[in-house]
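Standup notes, structure subgroup. Blocker cleared on the uridine-5'-diphosphate-glucuronic acid input:
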Amino acid sequence: MPYRLTVLGTGYLGTAQAVCLASSGFEVLGVDTDPGKIAALADGVVPFHEPGLEPLLREGLASRRLSFTTSYADAAAFGDVHFVCVGTPQRPGSYRADLTQLEACIGMLAPLMAGSCLIVGKCTVPVGTAQNLAEQLRVLAPGTELAWCPEFLREGHAVQDTLTPDRVVVGVQSARAEAILRNVHAEQVAVGTPFLVTDLATAELVKVAANAFLATKISFINAMAEVCEAAHGDVHLLAEALGHDPRIGQAGLRPGLGFGGGCLPKDIRAFMARADELGVDQALSFLREVDAINTRRRTRMVDLARELADGFEGVRVGVLGAAFKPDSDDIRDSPALDVARTIHDLGAVVTVYDPVAVPQARRAHPELRYAESAIDAAQDADVMLLLTEWDEFREADPEIIGKVVNKRNIVDGRNALDPDRWREASWHYRALGRP
Ligand code: UGA
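Run returned:
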């Protein structure tokens, strides 16, 4: 008899988990305290943009293996294994993680637990959190065990990353918990996906260390972009040449406006805060620089735009991109919107277009103007800024866009365009880190 699984929290992580576990043949109950989200999911609608997720959600609902509820009592009665996928955002005014949702989730679930269930944390937490929760559970729900199984999915690739992960890491306290998690991941284990068994603390650390490394790699190439700008080098070519070394690799070495989103920025900050508490702040002091390099790219983008437009007062700026990266409508800590808002505050008239994130952007930044297409955003613009590298923008025709702008100026904040093509169409093309 396969395990019955619940997934608590149906954001990006939890929805992908619930849907993919159901597609692997498990009976799954998705749980969230937000009735709007649960109603949408139960109707077969994913309340955010994630390629490939909605068809799989509908298959899961049709198979009757997947259902949704707002009731923790239903969850407790339903499941043998409970995956905790709630958010752990940055605490306002602090670098530390806000664990309110996690504490509330465990607080609601624990008193309802009967028998020998397994609770599996999947969210990103400061090291030591799992041990604390395990101790609480020993009192609140004797017989219930805790494991930690970090998730490495990228937004925009959630289905693929969940169904075929690079590795599965399970932090456990018993052979029984390991056996349950091997069973849940049997499909991945069967095709040779590395399955690493660790203690709770190491499992928590694997996740934050991975995100710290990825952020460092991005800021490394962006630091090289700063040097290239001063030394008249080309960071795009530099990155390509570096990436051919298999010890370095091309992935995560795309220079540009830097990282944003709901994960890398807050995770490196929470990691620094936790290191501070542990008395090893020096070990992670380099992450402060990683964060600073990342922020400086946004400032440099504003400076380049100002240079090209010859000041901002009354200047019309067309912005391509609002999401923190392509294939997502997530605008959390979006570098694109940060730049757009700054330029607006400096006196420019800013019109933003994004293929999917305009509704979210409009809610967060009603002060900006929004367009229905790239060509609309370009209307009468004195300078265009490419801030999120959607394919639609890479493929845009510089001649067609050139017909509607006031001046053919473009700053490529993601090194996504072919400079020759734009220059041949008489555009003044500038990019971060390139001559
Ligand atoms: C990141 C990690 O890649 C996932 O492994 C992790 O599971 C996830 O955080 C999480 O903690 O939940 P994600 O935030 O979806 O995933 O986005 P990435 O694809 O890593 O991109 C992050 C940011 O870095 C984006 O703003 C992107 O534009 C930027 N980036 C990425 C670069 O500027 N250059 C690159 O070469 C790569």
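Discussed briefly. The first helix runs from residue 12 to 23.
Next: hand off to the docking folks.
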